[in-house]
């Protein structure tokens, strides 16, 4: 199952704060909100993560998971509930969660640049595509290390749009469709085979 919607282009000014907020929400590790609540507590999924892409002509925000067909409807609703809890402030991102993510990021981020070509590629991309300066990597590290939970919460709440989710589920129609029909949720079925 994949849920997503169109997002900002690569000029998005709050991408660093949004990155940290999104890692707390759905970074894919066991302490992210989605993994903790949908896998560990509710047992709906094996793995789940959220991510976003920023491109020149627009971007994409998406959540991806594997789920048992009979749990697809419940999982979709649980994802939306998690999203809304953060967005509407019922379960705000805490300083402790942000601290954990920043420390984890500090531990693994340098591995991205273990080869000179990786550093050069990132600087060229930042300079030529994003219009950033040559000190982009250092500025990026400084920026995410100086964020507050209040800032990342505000950006996530302002810049997420769960009401726009388009959900795509790949599976056997007879296994997935009944739960959606029982809930009166309109579904468009596309048969590929």
Would you kindly provide a written description of the structure presented here, covering whatever features stand out?
By secondary structure, the protein is α+β, with helices and mostly antiparallel strands. It contains eight helices and four strands, in the order E-H-H-E-E-H-H-H-H-H-E-H. The chain has a single domain, classed as Cytochrome Bc1 Complex, Chain A, domain 1, CATH 3.30.830. Strands 2-3-1-4 form a four-stranded antiparallel sheet. Helix 1 packs across helix 4, helix 1 packs across helix 7 and helix 2 packs antiparallel against helix 3.
CATH superfamily placement: Metalloenzyme, LuxS/M16 peptidase-like
Point out poorly predicted stretches: none
Largest sheet: 4 strands, antiparallel
For the record, what CATH class applies?
Alpha Beta
**Portion in helices:** 40-55%
Q: In what range is the share of β-strand residues?
A: 15-25%
How far from one another are the termini?
A: 18 Å
Structural class: alpha+beta
Return the string of H and E elements.
Answer: EHHEEHHHHHEH
**Which value, in Å, is the CA radius of gyration?**
18 Å
Fill in the CATH topology: Cytochrome Bc1 Complex, Chain A, domain 1
């Amino acid at each position: 199952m994949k849920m997503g919607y169109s997002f900002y282009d690569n000029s998005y000014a709050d991408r660093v704060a949004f990155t940290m907020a999104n890692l707390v929400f759905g970074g894919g590790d066991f302490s992210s909100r989605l993994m903790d609540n949908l896998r560990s507590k509710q047992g709906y999924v094996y793995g789940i993560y959220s991510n976003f892409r920023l491109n020149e002509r627009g971007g994409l925000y998406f959540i991806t998971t594997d789920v048992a067909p009979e749990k697809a409807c419940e999982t979709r609703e649980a994802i939306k509930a998690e999203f809304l809890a953060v967005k509407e402030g019922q379960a705000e991102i805490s300083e402790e969660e942000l601290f954990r993510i920043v420390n984890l990021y500090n531990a693994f981020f340098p591995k991205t640049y273990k080869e000179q070509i990786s550093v050069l590629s990132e600087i060229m991309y930042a300079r030529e595509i994003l219009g950033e300066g040559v000190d982009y990597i250092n500025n990026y590290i400084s920026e995410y290390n100086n964020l507050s939970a209040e800032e990342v919460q505000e950006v996530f709440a302002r810049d997420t749009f769960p009401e726009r989710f388009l959900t795509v589920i790949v599976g056997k129609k007879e296994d997935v469709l009944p739960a959606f029909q029982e809930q009166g949720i309109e579904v468009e079925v596309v048969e590929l085979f």
